[in-house]
Amino acid sequence: MICVHCDYDFDPKSTLKQLAGGKINECADCVEELGTETAVKYLGCASADGKMGGISILAFKSNEARENYREAWNNNNGMHKGKVAALSGSNTAMSGMEFRQVGENFGNSNHKGKL
């Protein structure tokens, strides 16, 4: 495919292009130089409930808000610390962070038919 900005022949399915984003007819270099990628990527947050894991998919208004939420989530659930989630004074406050829930998938915690 030929880039509309620089007339360079590029592979739209390459890893570099997929990481850069942008429109399908723009090469990765032009996307980065011109700043045409404006979409904020979704964030998936995994959790556990009993014997089943769950995931929430969230959308944010800005990359900064997405990164702040990701850092707080990883800090509060013990990511890269070898610990499980626990309430403590060192937890990052997550109140007031704006996001929209795109989807979720949670297992049935009542897996044996008990209430």
Helix content: 10-25%
Average pLDDT, rounded to a whole number, is 83
**Strands, count:** 3
- The end-to-end distance, rounded to whole angstroms, is 58 Å
**How many DSSP helices?**
3
Query: How many strands, what sense, and barrel or not for the largest sheet?
Result: 3 strands, antiparallel
Helix and strand pattern: HHEEHE
Strand order of the largest sheet: 1-2-3
Oligomer: single chain
Which spans of ≥5 residues are poorly predicted at pLDDT below 50? none
Fraction in beta strands: 15-25%
Shape: elongated
Describe the overall structure.
The protein is α+β, with helices and mostly antiparallel strands and 115 residues long. The protein has helices at residues 15-20, 28-34, 63-76; strands at residues 43-49, 52-59, 100-105. The chain is elongated. It starts with 14 loop residues before the first helix and ends in a 10-residue tail after the last strand.
